[in-house]
Specification:
The chain is an alpha+beta fold and 146 residues long. The chain contains 5 helices and 5 strands. Bound molecules: flavin mononucleotide (FMN). The site of flavin mononucleotide (FMN) has 16 residues, from α2, β3 and α3.
Length: 146
């Protein structure tokens, strides 16, 4: 009984989760390229996928992976001095990844879309993630607003 309770709690480590946060960037061009290179180098080994969305000095990052790996990376990223104003918007269990093909995609969006994505993430509207994924796949936004 107690062994299976412990097993169940330990099994949570392997649950697939998605984490979304917003932060203010303290870096520019070449430093951003170096940061992205770090993501692409490290994330496959950690089993992390996701997207880093930029708008005029703001980041919105989606991290996907097992609860154990996302938690471990999240602690590292939160302490990174290259950004501030860190705000966790969403942490949820997911049945499958939205960004399975991307170790860390990178996109730049306008102000309206950045705010919309952040709000959708905060209000747990899954639509936001599939809209970003469609943009990565097809190069255009699904709606006509921008
Ligand atoms: C906005 C932001 C997003 C980041 N995303 C990732 C990431 O997806 N994967 C990663 O390994 N490091 C990421 N980092 C960097 C980590 O904070 C840390 O510097 C890095 O993991 C250290 O890697 P290293 O030990 O290979 O140098 C991010 C940092 C910032 C500021």
């Amino acid at each position: 009984m107690s062994a299976s309770f412990d097993d169940s709690l330990l099994a949570l480590d392997q649950q697939l989760i998605q984490l979304v946060y917003r932060s203010r960037s303290l870096i520019e061009g070449p430093e951003y390229d170096a940061l992205l290179a770090t993501c692409l180098r490290n994330n496959p080994g950690r089993g992390i996928t996701g997207v880093l969305v930029n708008h005029s000095g703001w980041f919105l990052q989606v991290l996907e992976g097992t609860a154990a790996s996302v938690n471990a990376l999240f602690k590292i990223i939160e302490a990174d001095p290259r950004h501030s104003e860190f705000l966790l918007l969403r942490l949820t269990a997911i049945p499958s990844r939205d960004f399975s093909d991307w170790s860390m995609a990178s996109i730049t969006v306008d102000k309206r879309r950045f705010l919309e994505l952040a709000n959708h993430a905060l209000h747990a509207e899954d639509e936001a993630m599939s809209v970003i994924r469609d943009f990565l796949c097809y190069g255009k936004w699904r709606d006509s607003k921008g």
